[in-house]
Amino acid sequence: MAKSPIVFAMANPNPEIRPEQCDGLAAVMATGRSDYPNQINNVLAFPGIFRGALDAHATDITEGMKLAAAIAIAESVSDADLKPEFVVPSVFDRTIVERVAPAVAAAAIKDGVIRKR
To answer: Where is the Malic enzyme NAD-binding domain (predicted)?
Structure first.
């Protein structure tokens, strides 16, 4: 393992490597599990992606829209709050949809996948 790695063990329900095995080794550790810090879960993205797509009357979900969602989620963690145990916002943060939806809608317009009215 590299010195101070960032480890995203995404297999569920059992991550490829347990956080306890990375104690003192990983700079950042994240899993798909809710019982560890930094839960990476698609529930963060789906509501905002769908709200943005519906608001824009998108006919498709593009890579640009997914990237816009990822950036909006990443930017929702402030520099002041960012720390190894908090690189991903909580799945219970209601502001995530409010940030993701307009970013996704704008990307749909940019990507030209909105239905003409």
So the answer is: 1-109
Q: How far apart, in Å, do the first and last CA atoms of the chain sit?
A: 54
pTM of the predicted model as reported, rounded to 2 decimal places? 0.83
Angstrom distance (rounded) from CA 83 to CA 75: 14
Of the candidates 50, 41, 55, the one whose C-alpha atom is nearest the C-alpha of residue 92 is 41
The amino acid present at 91, given as its one-letter code, is V
**What are the structural domains, with CATH classification, of the chain?**
1-40 (no CATH), 41-117 (3.40.50.720)
How would you class 106 by CB atoms within 10 Å of its CB: exposed for 0-12, middle for 13-18, buried for 19 or more?
middle
Summarised one tens digit per residue, pLDDT across range 56-102 is: 999 999 999 999 999 999 999 999 999 998 999 988 899 999 999 99
- The rounded Cα 88 to chain-centroid distance in angstroms is 7
As a whole number of angstroms, the distance between CA 82 and CA 68 comes to 20
Strand positions, DSSP E, the chain: 6-9, 28-31
